[in-house]
Amino acid sequence: MTLSLYLSRFLAILTLTKLAYLQKTLGWVAIDPTEGFISLPLNQSNFIIQWPYDVPQDQRYKFVDGIHKLRVYSSDKPHTPTSQTRPRTEIRIHGYDYSSGVWQFEGYGYVPRGTSGVCIMQVFGASPSHATTLMLRVYNDSLTYYQSPVLDPNIYNRWFRLNVVHDVEGSTVKVYIDGALLYEAPGRGGTSHYFKCGVYAQNDDSYLMESHWKGIKVFKKCD
Predict the structure, then answer these.
(1) Which residue, of 8, 95, 162, 220, has the greatest Cβ tally within 10 A?
(2) SS in 3 state form for 79-148?
(3) For residue 76, is pLDDT > 60?
C-alpha cells in the first residue's frame, strides 16, 4: 500500500470515528435532510458567477472536473464598480428565487487551510434591517453561524456535505453537516430569497480566501 493511499484511508477512518463520537456524545443523528423534498433541475446556466470586476473571471473562478473552485483576495475590488460591498467570488443560484414554501440547498464544500474571515454560503434576502437570512462563515478552521456560535470546529481540508433548509412561513433555517443537524436559527423575514456559495470577505479576513464546491442541488418540499 502506498503512503498516499494509507493516509487517505487513515483520514477516512478518523472522519467516521469523529462522526460516531459526536453522534454518541451529543446525540447527533445522521439523516437524509432531502427526504420529502423534490430535486429541481440545475445546469451551468443556473450558476451566476460574481467576481471582482477588474480581473478576468478565470483568475477567480474555475469549473474543473465537476468542481467549482472559487478564490478572492482581501485586496480585490467588489463585483461591480458601483458596489460598496467587500470582495467576493460567489455562485448565485439563478432561476429559483422564492418567497414562500420550504427550500433547501445542498452542496459538498471544501475549505483549504488558511482561509478565514469569510462567508462560504448564504441565504440572501431578509427584512430591511438585514441583508441575509443566513451566513455560514469560516474563522480559523471553525464553521460559524455569522460570527457565533461555532457549528463545526474542524472544517479545513475535508469535503463535507452541507444542507441548509429554509422554511419561510415557519421562519426557521436548519443547518446540516454530513446529515447531522447542527443548528436551527430563526428566520429574518423578507419577501425574496436565493442561495449563494463561494467566498465573500467578512471581518478579519485572510489575504487569500478559497472554497470549492461540487454536487450543488436545490430542493423544494413536496406539497
Answers:
(1) 162
(2) CCCCCCCCCEEEEEECCCCECCCEEEEEEEEEECCCCCCEEEEEEECCCCCCCEEEEEEEECCEEEECCC
(3) yes
Report residue 6 as a C-alpha cell: 494509507
The tens digit of pLDDT for each residue in 119-142 reads 999 999 999 989 999 999 999 999
Kindly report the pTM of this predicted structure: 0.87
Q: Which three cell numbers stand for residue 48?
A: 451566476
pLDDT digits (tens, 9 = 90+) for 133-174: 999 999 999 999 999 999 999 999 999 999 999 999 999 999
Residue 100 CA, chain-centre distance (Å), reads: 21
Helix (H) or strand (E) holding 168: none
All residues at 6 or more sequence positions from 43 whose CB lies less than 8 Å from its CB, including other chains: none
pLDDT digits (tens, 9 = 90+) for 22-53: 554 455 568 899 999 999 999 999 999 999 99
What are the grid coordinates assigned to 136, written together? 455560514
Q: How far is CA 187 from CA 34, 150, 166, 172, in A?
A: 20, 19, 8, 5
What are the φ and ψ backbone dihedral angles of 203, each rounded to 5 degrees? -70, 150
Burial class (CB in 10 A: 0-12, 13-18, 19+), 2: exposed
Rounded-to-integer distance, Cα 199 and Cα 90, Å: 6
Q: Which amino acid is at 163?
A: N
